[in-house]
Design brief:
This protein is mostly beta strands and about 100 residues long. Helices cover about 15% and strands about 40% of the residues. It contains 1 helix and 6 strands, in the order ββββαββ. The strands form 2 sheets. The protein has a 4-stranded mixed sheet, with helices on one face. A two-stranded antiparallel sheet has the order 2-3. Strand 5 and strand 6 form a beta hairpin. The protein is globular.
């Protein structure tokens, strides 16, 4: 395994109708797959701030009542990601960033 460990965050948001917020990945090893919204933390960024930013960028919705749910490591294509998963509520009308989709 090569490369430094990157810090990432994702959000598991489920609404009252039991629908899970997900985004279509535009690139990387999961290109074309539907995943939870999230991504890499910016240098010095706190995880809660990062998950709020990433969710807003990818889906156009705002988050509230976030709770730390899990932490895990992902190893894929020579990369190592340490991921923090949050759960919480979202509000607003979802809209995907350019080249992606949201559901």
């Amino acid at each position: 395994m090569t490369g430094a460990r990157s810090q990432s965050v994702v959000l598991a948001a489920v609404d009252a109708r039991r629908r899970v917020l997900s985004t279509l990945q535009r690139g990387g090893p999961y290109r074309g797959h539907w995943l939870l919204p999230g991504g890499r933390l910016e240098p010095g960024e706190r995880p809660l701030d990062g998950v709020r930013r990433e969710v807003a960028e990818e889906t156009g919705v705002r988050t509230r009542a976030l709770r730390d749910l899990a932490a895990y490591d992902v190893h894929v294509e020579g990369q190592h990601w340490h991921v923090r998963m949050y759960t919480g509520a979202v509000h607003g009308a979802p809209r995907a960033e350019a080249g992606s989709a949201v559901r």
